[in-house]
Amino acid sequence: MKDNTEYREALEEAVKGLQHAETAIFTAMVNVGFKGPYKDISDMHEPGEVLNLELSMFEDTTDANLEALVALVKNVNAVRHQLVHLNSLDIDVDEE
């Protein structure tokens, strides 16, 4: 069944959907972080200012909500990579 073209296309679409979901969850995580535990950092920057943020910057907080979002980003990323590697999909998992 893994050689079925429609099946592979569905897997590729699933991976793309997971990429979009991961981006949306990451954005939600940043918004929660900057309204909560990292509000002081947020207040130092002007609206519209470009910041280069990484997942590791939001780890190891005492905020349970932020911790849950960090875990979800990691889980979605892991599933996305797993689908690509299990099925030898020709998709760049690090794009976007």
Helical amount among residues, as a percent range?
55-70%
Provide the residue-averaged pLDDT.
90
**Any low-confidence stretches, pLDDT <50, length ≥5?**
none
CA gyration radius, whole angstroms: 16 Å
Number-wise, the strands total 0
Shape designation: elongated
Q: Which class of secondary structure composition applies to the elements? A: mainly alpha
The number of distinct helices, counting runs of at least 4 residues, comes to 3
Give the distance, in angstroms, between the N- and C-terminal Cα atoms.
29 Å
Fraction of residues in β-strands: under 5%
- Major sheet description: none
SSE ordering: HHH
How many domains? The number is 1
Question: Could you please describe the fold and organization of this structure?
Answer:
The radius of gyration is 16 Å and the shape is elongated. The chain is 61% helix and 0% strand. It is built from three helices and no strands. Helix 1 packs antiparallel against helix 3 (64-86). The model has no long low-confidence stretch (mean pLDDT 90). The protein has one domain. The chain has 96 residues and is mainly α.
